[in-house]
Amino acid sequence: MVAGASWTTLSRAGLQVFSAISMIVLAQYVKPREYGLAGMAQVVTNFAALFRDIGVSAAIIREKTLDDDLLPSIFWLTLGMSLCVTAACCLIAPFAARFFNEPALPPILQALSLCFAITALSGVQIALMNREFQFSRIAAVELLAGAAGMIAAVIAAVLGAGVWSIVTGTLTNVTVTSILYIALCPWRPTLSFSPRRLGPVLRFGLNISGFNIVSYFDRNTDNLLIGKYLHAAPLAYYNFAYNLMLYPVQMIGSTLGRVLFPAFARMQEDQERFGRAYLRACAAIAFVTFPLMAGVSALAPEVIAVILPKWHPVAPLLRILAPVGMVQSLTMTTGFIYMAMGKTGAMFRWSIISTGITVAGFAIGLHWGLPGVASSYAMVTLLTLIPAFWIPFRFIRLRVRDLWSALWPIIRAVAAMTLVTVALRRIVLGWHSSPLLALLILVPFGAASYFAIMYWRNRALLVEYFTLLRSAMDVFRR
After folding, report:
1. Best CA proximity match to 165, nearest among 277, 56, 37, 78
2. Distance, CA of 331 to CA of 334 (rounded, Å)
3. How far apart are CA 418 and CA 443, in angstroms?
4. Using CA atoms, how far apart are residues 342 and 334, in angstroms rounded to an integer?
5. Is 190 in contact with 72 (CB distance < 8 Å)?
6. For the chain, which end, N or C, has fewer CB atoms within 10 Å of the first or last residue's CB respectively?
7. From CA 445, how far away is CA 451, in angstroms rounded?
8. Distance CA 229, CA 235 (A)
């Protein structure tokens, strides 16, 4: 598991670096309105993506045995659905343009819809390599594809392609990804197709698909409302803040998540071991994401002034959304409990309730513009926090207070670090107004104070994490 997490961490870290470079460079050449157009297209494609495999790829990882009928059947099913989704996006593009009142939207949406057909060609190979813990190969594919997408997007932006630089980067990334997965995985589809064999898999996958459809509105209603009522430029600012919040969440949370699901699936009959492993994973995630997001929230104006000087409206949004990233880095792991224990029906039912609360919050917050939407997101996240953990914890006999006990040493250290950093920030900015200088002083100081507090109050926990880090480094040396 350490080896898998190590390779996945390398991949995620590299992808976040590529994404950050692309974002910073493109922000100099692509106007906010054009970014907003890409965001509107992604609202549609994110919804369409929910129908491309209806959760059957996850079943490949969870199934105890695979046979020659199941895999080709899944391949042809997902390919057929992906082609239908691509065609549907092309057909509804004019209607999406009317909804957002953006005539330039249809060709952008139609071009991005090609990603579904391209991705379907390697869907089974991706699931098989995850099932077999081939994380070093997966990391290599993701890094090469991410680099190719970044280079293509940056070149197109410098040449004046505008919003099409984002489209070019995305299409390049998914094309290279599919080609490499097909080349590295020896499995090839045959012409066989067995509807009977798909039955149990579809029952498992349809609940996941239902959950994903409902969760789409949880994650995208804010973009939908902002794009409809506040238009393209405000949507670009909000997306920038949201994506900056997601970077560490995706890098750390999804890194361990990729390893946790296949590992948890093998622990489904040993709930005590499952619970211990889950708590350790959450503590490891919080150890990194909590201080990082607390620092981003405290220093948001300086961070935006340095990396995106022309996008200053992003700073107050980032300050509100960063704490949401702390919570989401943990809540995103609960899905692996549901799937590993085969409780996707319960996951679907909870998603309906939580999404209803979230959508209502966004609708109310919209009256106060972008800060209102961001604030409603934060409040809804806090409101649904306890049931988000309590419901899946019943399946592995964990208590919410067990999670609190595992996280308390980290929360205490992060709170102390934040107070010290905020106090020093006032002194530094009073002495000098340079945002870059402030970051050069405050970021190392904040990191040092966090580790010092952890060493003082939780030395054993800190030693454990550094031992894991050393084990991860040994994986790369080998």
Report:
1. 37
2. 6
3. 11
4. 13
5. yes
6. C
7. 10
8. 10
Does position 478 have pLDDT exceeding 60, yes or no? no
Q: Is the per-residue pLDDT at 471 higher than 60? A: no
310 burial via Cβ count (<10 Å: 0-12, 13-18, 19+): exposed
Give the residue with greater pLDDT, 147 vs 472: 147
134: exposed, middle or buried (Cβ count in 10 Å: 0-12, 13-18, 19+):
middle
201-215, 341-355, 366-380, 384-398: lowest mean pLDDT where?
Answer: 201-215
Going along 274-398, which residue ranges are E strands? none
Among 234-238, 413-417, 449-453, whose mean pLDDT is lowest?
A: 234-238
Contact 100, 30 (CB under 8 A): no
Confidence category of residue 124, pLDDT binned at 50, 70, 90: confident
Report the alpha-carbon distance of residue 274 to residue 264 in Å, rounded: 7
Give me the count of residues in the chain: 478
Domains and CATH numbers, the chain: 1-193 (1.10.357), 217-478 (no CATH)
- CA separation, residue 30 to residues 36, 153, 223, 301, 405 (Å): 10, 11, 19, 22, 46
Query: What value does the mean pLDDT take over residues 278-293?
Result: 88
Q: Are 57 and 78 in contact (CB under 8 A)?
A: yes
Q: How far apart are CA 315 and CA 28, in angstroms?
A: 17
Place of tokens 């990396």: 307
Say how far apart CA 15 and CA 171 lie, in whole Å. Answer: 16
- Provide the 10 A C-beta neighbour count for residue 478: 6
- Calpha distance 120→350 (Å, rounded): 29
Place of tokens 């980032």: 318
Q: Which pLDDT tens digit goes with each residue over 15-67?
A: 767 777 787 778 788 888 888 888 889 888 888 887 776 666 666 766 666 76
Q: What is the pTM of this model?
A: 0.68
d(CA 4, CA 371): 39
